[in-house]
Every structure is written in structure tokens, then in C-alpha cells.
């Protein structure tokens, strides 16, 4: 009984950590929209990224995060930071905000990066879902840096940050395999769920 408080000190953070990861979005995307509006298709593309990212980052270890394929290439954690920046662009467009240089609070904490990325993608997906062609045509990806301002149509969002984030999520899978921690082979990307 003397060791009970010590046991609680050890177990409570572990349980809290496990509960947090269980509440993150995109562990499963097997349910899908029933309509094919342009916004729903874009939303589903974001969901597919979220699902791939969730499983590419699930169970990463410190040695995986430190892995760097070459001396001049990005490490896994640096790749995660880059994907988080791309997800900020996607979310900014979905919110109809202007993304300014330095708007984002950088972090190198893996759990925080993972959660911010997944939750940002989830919100962006929700905001795009059901939008009409007219609504998407009015949507813009907006940037500002000092006195400089630029904006682009949603097409640039698709071939820019969205495609880039999918590409880099694939790199994470390769990096973790190279560092000795391959992704769960039961993940079925076609069905959007973990197989039996």
C-alpha cells in the first residue's frame, strides 16, 4: 500500500497518453460521404491524407524521429514539421484566412505535431465538406509576408500543399522502415481501415 502513490504517478500519465492517442482523428475512414459534391471530394482527399498520416506516424520511436536518410536530407521530425506547415496551409484555405509568415507557433514535440496536424486536417475536411462548385471557385489560398500579398485558387491547394503532404507522408513510411520500425501491415489504405 506504501507504493500505491508511486504507482499512480507512473500509471496516470501513461493512461492519459494512451487515451489521447485514442481520441485522435483518422484511425479509420471506412465510412464515406454519400454525395459527390466538389467539396465532399476535396474533403475525402484530406481524409485520405489524414488516414495515411495517422498510420505513418502511429508508434514512432525516438530513433525513428531522429532518422535522417542522408546528411543533407530532412530527418523524420523535420519532415513532420514540414507536413504540419502544409496542413496549416490547407486549414487556412478552408477557414478562408490569410496565412502570414510567422503566424504558426513552431514546435518539435512529436505528440503536439501529430495532434495539431491531425486535428487541423479534420477541421479543414469538415469545412470543405459539402461545398458546391461555386463555393470552391470563390475559395482562395491566401498568403501575406510583410507588404507582399498573394492568393491562388483551390486548384493550387490540391497540387500544392495537399499533394505535397501526401508525398511527404509516404516518405515517413519509408523512413520508419529504414529505421527498423515498419508501419503496421494490417493498414488497408484502399478500405480506409485496419484489416483483421
From TrEMBL:
The cross-references to SUPFAM superfamilies, in alphabetical order and at most eight, read:
DinB/YfiT-like putative metalloenzymes (SSF109854)
The entry's keywords: Signal
- Alphabetized InterPro entries for the sequence: DinB/YfiT-like
Signal sequence bounds: 1-21
* Name of the protein: DinB family protein
From which organism does this entry originate? Neolewinella litorea
**Which taxonomic lineage does the organism of this UniProt entry have?**
Bacteria, Pseudomonadati, Bacteroidota, Saprospiria, Saprospirales
